[in-house]
Amino acid sequence: MCSPTGEKTQNCKGEDAINEQQAEPFPWRLGAMDAHCHVTDTMPSVARIANMKARVLTIMATRSQDQALVSSVAARQTIRSRADIDATPVESSDKIVPSFGWHPWFSHQFYNDTAGKPTFDSSAENVAEEKARHYAEVLTPAPSADFIASLPVPRPLSSFIAETRSRLDENPVALIGEIGIDKAFRLPQEWSQGEEPERDQNLTPGGREGRLLSPYHVKVPHQVQILEAQLRLAGELGRAVSVHGVQAHGVLFDALASLWKGHEKEVISRRKQRLVAEGAEDFSSSDEDSDDGFPRKQDRANNKPYKPKPFPPRVCLHSFSGPPQMMKQYLSPAIPVRIYFSFSMVVNLSSAGLESKFVDVIKACPDDLLLVESDLHTAGDEMDQVLEKMYRKVCGIKGWALTEGLQRIRKNYEDFIFG
Ligand SMILES: [Zn+2]
Predict the structure, then answer these.
(1) What is the architecture of the domain spanning 32-112+160-192+199-282+295-418?
(2) Chain segment 220-229, per-residue pLDDT in tens
(3) In angstroms, what is the span from residue 208 Cα to ligand 1's centroid?
(4) pLDDT in tens, 245-261
(5) How far away, in angstroms, is 60 Cα from ligand 1 center?
(6) Treating both helix axes as pointing N-terminal to C-terminal, what angle do 402-418 and 381-398 enclose, rounded to 10 degrees?
(7) CB burial string 317-339: b at 16+ within 10 A, e below
């Protein structure tokens, strides 16, 4: 039922298909891909990955505490190439595509030493004073002295970029993520006395863990700087990125667009396309992006030449929650980046009210740019279950049989990761 009254609306076209495929067993053997999750937030659950039915989990790093964890999990169970996925059965325990990035919720922990005047001077004698200056500049409203005292001494952004570059060098398939912009979040309050030793030891530190929220936000221009530095690294190395955007669709689009400005693709008119077809002259090339004039470099995962660019080649807008009009903005043929849209039960269908909006967005999403994700923080059966639910939902709305849907989304996923 798509409307609360049960009336058939235009949005219900996929309803019959949904009913039909609900009864079908789920074809796990075709390979269900999870485009975005956080299993290293619950390290004891990682042992369950080998027994999961999903074929690939794309594990995001977000903050200081999880970068090395994602690296170590990937070192044991990584996927090294597209051929790896094809060559091994769904039961393979090699299921991991790692992703390294710094989430906007933690962006205040960096000072930007890559451009302009830094908000923190590492050579200054009075570290506490510099720390207060940094947090006063990047947080809003002005933080209290107690709150500043609870925050770490900020790190230079350049050191994180260097660290991420070497992690990406080690793993030729790794992505950059989770990165992005979030206007809605507020920093959690410091742990109150005696509370921290009682926290759940199974959880990787650094997350919110039920703490109350403070009134403090990270100023958007600071979030944009941290995001852009990571997008540039992805562009330089030719890696895909996984992006988070909450109440920030306009700012996020502008941040991405500022990087590809001047590199927009020439949009060939229908008439010109027809003339080309009639003249049988082939303007295309077997080389990727051969028309944009960048020097070439080897793309190790694909064994294809890759030319460094100021923007990433492929972007996934994870748990995309914008309206269809916003999706259209990203689909302009002039944009030189392939932009994918990924959907999760936990965000996109977290309330009954979101269902009708979701149907419209799935219908508007091009078939070849659609991805599915769990966005869960624990590996295991529940992750398989939410993935299955979302695959079934999407297939129902698109009118795809499950076999067709899984094959399509698997191809989309592989194109997103490997290019
Ligand atoms: Zn996430």
Answers:
(1) Alpha-Beta Barrel (3.20)
(2) 999 999 999 9
(3) 14
(4) 988 889 999 999 999 99
(5) 7
(6) 110
(7) bbbbbbeeebbeebeeeebbbbb
